[in-house]
Amino acid sequence: MIARLAVVALLAFMTVPTVVVIAVSFNPTAILSFPPSGLSLRWYANVVAYPQFRRAAVNSLLVTAAAAALALPAGTLAALALERGRLRGRSVWAAMLLSPLVVPGVAAGLGFLILAAGLGLLRSRSVLVAAHVALVLPFVVRSVWVSVRNLDPVLERAAASLGATPWRVFRRVTLPLLRPGLFAGLLFAVVVSLNEFVVSLFISNRVTEILPVAMFTYVVNYTDPTIAALSSLFIVVTFLVVWLADRYLNLAGVFLRP
Amino acid sequence: MKLLLLPALVVLAVFAAALAALFRWSLLEFVPGSLQTGGLTLANLRGVLAPQYLGAIRDTVVLSALTTVLTLVAAYPVAYALARTPSRRVRSAILVLTLAPFFTGAIVRTYAWVLVLGNTVLAWPVPMLFTERGVLVGLVHFSMPTMILVLAAALSHIDPVYERAAASLGASPARVFRRVTLPLSMPGIVSGGLIVFAWTLSAFPTPELLGGGRVKMIANVVKDLGLDSFNWPGAAAFAMLALALTLALLTALGRLAAGRPS
């Protein structure tokens, strides 16, 4: 009983900040108060009206779409090679592919800043895309790898023995069977890229910055609950994505028994 | 089959080039007021240990150690419930509540703590926002999901039969936990602890927003030097310190993992 209460209390510790943000986002006054003295959507209107957030939202969508579009095929092919290829030092390759996960954000961010400055690319979104592709690649590789491991090669051999060309086998048998892994990989790539902050802070300016960076600048300069409204939107989207993933993709399989 | 790795390797090569640029600049002489650099020097790396930064390095290590211990204690019961609950629904609920913060961005999560730790929601008896206490709370919250997942993975590999055997031989629940469950989950405790410690050493958004400039960790020094003072060589030296500490800890983790049968 005490143990159960402890678990509930700890889950509350993890969840309460989220609830507070959502409650504050409906606060009618600029001075933060809790519980709110009424309900208002003015901060949501503020989010939509603030030009820098609009620009940043467009940047976020462009960078995330490009990063996911590049990382998904690259990660999928790598996962196939890791599971199927006769590679020497497979674990070394795997560790290399997952390495962007462990590099501190400030190190990667400053490195990309210095590299981009040297190439004269500081005003372009391409640096953000390059960094985001590397940062989401580990998630794609991991998700697809789980699916490749569960794929029985006998099915592909059967298709080949019935006369399908290798390309046709790949398109009609391999890809459809990998769909859950591909979908999970895409999902993680999108969520991680949309929320990426530290590296992006170093390599963006007011024109190219993505939403989390614009939010950081706003929090540092203003104290009104506009960020609470924008955060609430992020929270709702993230919760929905995770909930859907849990329903349809066996999250426990990906995270508890990798 | 090796060719399939090529696109991913191109991506990694760009990433490696960025880290190589970082390394090179950590060895270049800083010319104040300019982004031009002088010749090769070890001054930046020595500068990392200059007296004005020792406080930041000490705070980083102390905060990371405290975060690791507190997160271990707080995550263990949740991980145990996640790994052992017989109800699919409870498991899903815990998993979603754990993973949603994991995927909610650092800014959203840290801003939430700005609201909670400021005196808007609760009247705190002691100041929390812009103090090391407040940063510590934020860091523990930030590390919880990772720790829960690592511990739950380790706990789900333990066969409950061992615990039932100990209980049936007359051990009290506390004794079963201390003598059976805890020792068997040690691999998870060690890897979770090392991962969280390494991760917290380079934490940035939490000390930046919850510390309000009054609490500095290594990553905040990198940002101050790199983005505010345009001292890229100095910032690069500090970033190399963060990178070296992380790699050293993860190498230790790899050694430990390789040394035990799984």
Topology, element by element:
The complex is a heterodimer of chains A (258) and B (262).
Chain A: H1 2-25, H2 42-49, H3 51-84, H4 90-98, H5 105-119, H6 126-149, H7 153-161, H8 166-177, H9 179-195, H10 198-203, H11 211-221, H12 226-249, H13 251-256
Helix pairs in contact in A: 1-12, 2-12, 3-6, 3-9, 3-11, 6-9, 7-8, 9-12
Chain B: H1 6-25, E1 28-30, E2 37-40, H2 43-47, H3 51-84, H4 88-103, H5 106-117, H6 132-155, H7 160-168, H8 173-184, H9 186-201, H10 205-211, H11 218-228, H12 232-259
Antiparallel strand pairs in B: 1-2
Helix pairs in contact in B: 3-4, 3-6, 3-9, 4-6, 5-10, 6-9, 6-10, 7-8, 9-12, 11-12
The CATH topology name of chain B reads MetI-like fold
Uncertain runs of chain A: none
Count of helix runs of chain B? 12
Q: In CATH terms, what is the architecture of chain B?
A: Orthogonal Bundle
Quaternary state, please? heterodimer
Task: Summarize the main sheet of chain A.
Answer: none
Question: Based on DSSP secondary structure assignment, what is the total number of beta strands of chain B?
Answer: 2
The percent range for strand residues of chain A is under 5%
* Most extensive chain interface and residues per partner: A-B, 91 and 83 residues
The DSSP helix count of chain A reads: 13
Proper CATH architecture of the domain at 51-221 in chain A = Orthogonal Bundle
The first-level CATH class of the domain at 51-221 in chain A is given as: Mainly Alpha
Proportion of residues in helical segments of chain B: over 70%
Q: Which word captures the global form of chain A?
A: globular
| Gap from first CA to last CA of chain A | 31 Å
Distance from N terminus to C terminus of chain B (CA atoms, Å) equals 28 Å
Morphology call of chain B:
globular
Radius of gyration of CA atoms of chain B, rounded to a whole number? 22 Å
Task: Provide the succession of SSEs of chain A.
Answer: HHHHHHHHHHHHH
CATH superfamily of the domain at 51-221 in chain A: MetI-like
Structural class estimated from helices and strands of chain A = mainly alpha
